[in-house]
User: Fold this.
Amino acid sequence: MASVRFDAVGKRFGSVEAVRELSLEIADGEFMVLVGPSGSGKTTALRMLAGLEAISAGSIFIGDKRVNDVAPRERDIAMVFQDYALYPQMSVFDNLAFGLRRRKVASDEIKRRVEEAARVLDMSELLARKPGQLSGGQAQRVALGRALVREPQVFLMDEPLSNLDAKLRTQTRGEIRRLQQEVETTTVYVTHDQVEAMTMGDRIAVMNDGRLEQVGTPEELYERPANRFVAGFIGSPSMSFFTGPEVGLTLPRNGAVVGVRPEHVRPWREGLIGPLKGRVAFVEALGRETFVGVDVGEARLVVFEEGRAVRDVGDEIEFGLVESGLRYFSSESGAAL
Amino acid sequence: MGVAAAPLEAAAREGSPGERPPGEPRLVGYLYVLPAFAVFAVFVLVPLVHAAWISLWDWNGLPNSPATWAGIGNYTDVFTDEQLRSAFVHALILLVFYAVLPILIGLLLAGVMARARVRGLALFRTILFLPQVIAMVVVATMWKMIYDPENGALNRFLGWFGIEGKSWLGDFSLALPSVGLIGTWVYFGLAMVLLTAGVQKIPPSLYDAARVDGAGPFREFLAVTLPGLRGEIAVALTLTTIYALRNFDLVYITTQGGPGDSTTVPAFQVFSRAFQGSQVGSAAAVGITLTFVIFLISFAINRVAERST
Assistant:
């Protein structure tokens, strides 16, 4: 096990700067999630850490060792790929054993480790099958198993759940987290799904356009986003943004952009800031709660209502804001104020 | 079909025979195939059966001359007749030059390409594929000129380095490999186009996985490139094997099977026996045997390719 450190790492593809000045420290045993929209540089960062992509600037350290010029096979990492990348001609057993054989592990030790991994992942009956005979979920477990048996310094996972259906994804999310806590191996996990990031990461690094926007625990990112991008990216439905004049309010920080999450926008009652009036633009009734999109002048806010609210598009609605839930961002830089 | 839904569906399909899903061809489909089958039968099946019939006789090919029953005599000749046996042995040797060598070279290139993206690949591929589009007659004539002992390009080229030229097509031990190398030159392009196209279809993540797992270039080739190209290898091997075994024009133009019988091949024997030697029955037997050998080898190649899936 080892810590990982990105020190002002950059990557250029021709004229495109995929990763800019990325500095990030990942503690030994930590589960770090790199999250961001597509093209944000998160996968490139992971591939540089794996050694699959050359580093254009800066340094990457695994433990105390600078690995810029170290081949992937000598970095002692294991990687789980989005499409699983199982060797199609090999049985599941051989897929799991492949990396160990390359490292000249004794064959009875290989057998022990593979069987142990198969037991932990509940796939002992799959060992003789070929990847073509596996379901998506099973193939995903095999891919995890292949990383697990290696007992590496660092696990790298590149969107390993994005090919699974929603239910399996939720289930596997918990399972990966549990496994990681058991083996306590440093893990870098790339995803574009903020729900995955929020539920799995010890800490989350939000990336956008090749830059690191913020690093922090899920709670920090949710409660104290460093800028408008992070505020809008984390949380679902996402934070609503408006300015005081747009909605006819005078707020403490004039001229700033105000961000507010749906749970802090409620139907009008005493004690809230308001009342504000608007027209219903959309209704998302989820059963336990209802999100109501409301147009107020130029701005659109999402109102949170308990239970199944009876609203129709075009209805007038009166609502208010919870003061403690308001976040202020610079209208120029987008940075939190 | 769900059990509960069965009675409903059956009712909906009342009057339609059998359990055929909607849209599946019915027996009447065979009627539509009939015209094509008739043409195929007249021009392929009947001549084939006729050839098989002829192969059982000793006949000089003239319409009014008598034929004597030979039974399987013409077939046992294939194994006992020195000339015919060596023709089949030569065909198998040419297999190495036509099929094995081009595919090995193609694989080497595909393996390199999997590691490093080659610039200008399309142009490169077109150039190497060119021999494929030239008529074999032209290729053969051209190479005959290149191999010419007096003024051939090859001997002149060797002369610059002080190496004494050889009679490439006239020497008993050199003639067959020399003819074979022409085949390598022609079919290398085909193998390469198939294999390099195949290698681009292998998911890059497999290479990434192999590298992270600790595979070096050679192990990566064995674990990822080679299995990934299995289908393409089978196609290339089948095609080039057929070309090698039925090879005629190249031999006819460059050596006429000579010197002696050192480059004779089955297809050339079919030709010379049928149209020069008045041994039509024997020619037919060689042709049928050749067909059978080609079928057998192609079948074996594809069985092996399928089994290792």
Summary: The CA atoms of residues 77 and 308 of chain B lie 37 Å apart. Chain B has one domain: 74-307.
